[in-house]
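Lecture notes, unit on protein representations.

Consider one protein chain, 398 amino acids long.
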Amino acid sequence: MKTLRYWLWFSQAIGYCTVKAKQIYTLYNSIEDFYSGGEQEWRFSGLFSNNEIEKLSSTGLDCADEIIAKCNKYCYQMITLDSPEYPVCLRDIDDPPAVLYVSGMLPDIDDRLSIGIVGTRKASVYGIRSSYEFGYNLAKSGVTVVSGGALGVDCSSHKGALAADGVTICVLGCGINVDYLRENAKMRSDITFKGAVVSEYPPDTPANAYNFPQRNRIISALSNGLLVIEAARKSGSLITVNSALEQDVNKKIFALAGPADPHFYGTNELIKEKVAQLVTDYTDIIGAFDNLYVTGELDIAAQPKDDVIDLIPVKGKPPKDINGLRTNDLTIVPVHKTDVKLNEDEQKVYYAIESEPVQLEAIAESTDLPVFKIMSITTTLELKGLIECVQGRSYRLK
């Protein structure tokens, strides 16, 4: 695109998360006209300090050429503020990115319902499972799921959307090529086939604490509504909520209630103060947007794959014809699934767990695996919906 070099030049000189990119876009026919005007024009605009004018003067277009070459190497798309592909919902905020870097295919975010899901990196099993299920069911219903690619709630939401073969957008606080959270590398790669990994930072920009609050405004801007799952009193998720309400005071905020625990303080306060609408499942969110667009046929009954169960008549009662079965006539006994992919150690742990609770120590004894490794594996199995934790250190099939 003709203006790409100039927007790259501008962002390298002035920086990111600035209202001045939007001001230039609004005041000038083209960023190229602004560049060509030189120092006299920059001073005349009244938008820049002496220090910023010095940075504009000392920054050359060669820095833009280096970024373009690197993006071409990685096959990243660069979408500028004045590009027709730039999301309108993002351009409408006060401080949109001058350039958006994209790996994958950015969906038509302005013409489909999108929900941002945010929460703590140190999520509980409840938070992990809930974010996965919301991500799965929303994506299954045609909703674009937006999150930040971090550990905990973020990655569980993305993974739920991917499991539903849905569309998800991962907004990073670093360059797309940076190996931020190596354990999520495959997830980010998978996202590019069903959505996009995006950033306002050029390749090689490292992750740092300052970038993530800036990143949050992009998550909220790309989302018609925001769901908060498990947020403490001081949480980046609350920064995202504030960004959303600053961008649009009527933007819908949702929250999942948690126990009276410090890890859920922020979430519960959002509900208590009526900043957020309490939700119990994904249909509460979709129902709040009945005047909006959901692509395809809305599948209200969309659920993760049901557990395999055996239906065994209760003792003392004769078997009934299957069409005549009533729930109070049955004992539902979960059994091991045979169609799941597990590694050798995961299989050992999985098949050591039965329909009745099995203590962690008993699992260790039967598998000959260390307890710390079993705890990691049981978390994985819980996320897959294969087992559930009961009575503290005991597990049973789900």
